[in-house]
Amino acid sequence: MMRPAQDACAADAALTHELAQFLYREARLLDTHRLGEWLSLYAEDATYWVPLAHNQPDPYEHSSIMHDDRTLMAARVRQYAHPRAHARLPATRTIHQVGNVLLLENGPDHLRVASTLVVIEYRQERQRHWGALVEHRLRRTIGGFLIAAKRIDLVNSEAELDGITVLF
Amino acid sequence: MRNSTIANPADLVREDRVHHSVYSDPAIFELEMERLFGRAWLLLGHESQVANPGDYITTRMAREPVILTRHHDGSLQVLINRCTHRGALLAHEARGNARQLVCPYHGWVFDTNGTLRNVPVAQGYGKDAHATFSGLGLAKVPRVSSYRGFVFASLAANGPDLQEFLGPIASSFDDMVDRAPDGEIEFAGGIFKHAYNGNWKLVLENHLDGIHPNFVHASSVDAARAVPDDPAARPGAERYAEIPLRQMRQNGAPEPVWEALGIWSSEWGHGYMGDYHSDARLVAAMNHPVFAEYRSRLEARVGPAEAVRILGVSRFNSVVYPNVSFMSQYRQLRIVHPLAVDRTVVYTYNIRLKGAPEQMYRDTVAFSNVVNGTASWVLTDDLEVYERAQRGLAAATPEWVVTARGAGGDVEEPGGFRRGATGTSELYIRRQFQAWRKYMAEAPA
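^ Those are the sequences you sent over. The predicted structure of the assembly is below.
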């Protein structure tokens, strides 16, 4: 028989495991170029945000590296499939390494999950790496989690950067 | 071969072609830093970035790191960002506020007009310390001048003044500032800094090029066109994606639209492209509530007739050669920084029209993300093509690059502009290289 504290602890561990698996699955879809499936992880009203500034408070008063609603995310995914997507062909090969998965908030409507992300990308004889603090806002649905918002704070967002054609 | 090209760089430019080495030869690049960027008026920024005494930004002019700062007497100062003692940078942040500039190495202190104020342990310099120190104020950039709040500087003591240098392209800055209901603009909302492995000239040539969008941007045009129109949209309540989608789609305008556009160029290599946006929401439709509010605020200051004139100006990109490209109507400005013959970084700023509705500024930000963002659907394809051009241009064969499109059809207009026969004339490239030749033909005095 487990005591209540152990119960809570076990439930917490199970949830953290489930969340980590969900984030790994998202990473896996990006790394295997299954972008249609990746998009389906996002709610219809989702936002996908890569701020330009450190600690940027909002995406409306200040430029962002990416600030997409679902419509713009779909347009991004569609561009990858275009035969004249010059900067996206050949496709960049990536690995997305997700770590430090931490449940920030387990609310009635949503969960907030923090993680760190390391991306290695390779295309046309050039390899780059990225590091980011990531926060997901997730909704529970009958079919599993849906991403309501994702914020990716690149450590070098304010640097002089070559064009970015990977998704984080 | 290399030595012979350096002997007379003017020979590298002909009427309808240029030698590939102007894009690829490191020795030519060094000469450009000395003769072209070392001499031309370069845009450093806007007065709004240094609004208060002690405000500063750091930037580059050719090879020189410089500080643009506002001294306590209100004057703008452009100083070489290098301690006159052992050479360390005095300011290393992109921007800040400092009453005095203090060297991190040995603590030398300078006023914001460059005057040397204090040297720690000065007795080490002996009896003649004062004589030694009197010549050790910070080096100043010889000429600084503003046009409607845009701050330019020149590393050369002599040459045409700013007004003469700008000539008729000054009207594009007028277009930008005149649109502000309060008569003033400011830089706001961060700086995109996108870099590419290509020559600095490629970006200035591309910004007035009306042929490339249908080829370079085909993928973003098609991706945006595939998005259905928003059935719920009504003026003032459009979906967030509306501005980016419309801008991407517009790049797919058919060939006759581009051909019918105007392309104008003036002395010193400046030029602009007439606007190709027929899309009402992008250019602020008359029946749009945000635009109606904006228009009434503008009219309140300048009167209805002047408002009609101001809003009737229709320009897309304007280029001020060799380091500026801006969109007066769309409130974006880029400063081009050459780093090496095959490496360039472009800083992009949002412009806020003071007194305009907040939504107009938000539209500026959304427009900037899609056109100038480092991860833009549009810009990334431009950068890819610059890099492919650079790799091709490094090849020795063929020697010459053709700039002949529309040659022979250019028409002089009153006021100092020359207009291309069609909107896709390469007139602007020919004028840029005529200016290039003029700068490069002789060493600075």
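The mean pLDDT of chain A is 95. Chain A is about 25% helix and 45% strand.

Shout if you want it in another format.
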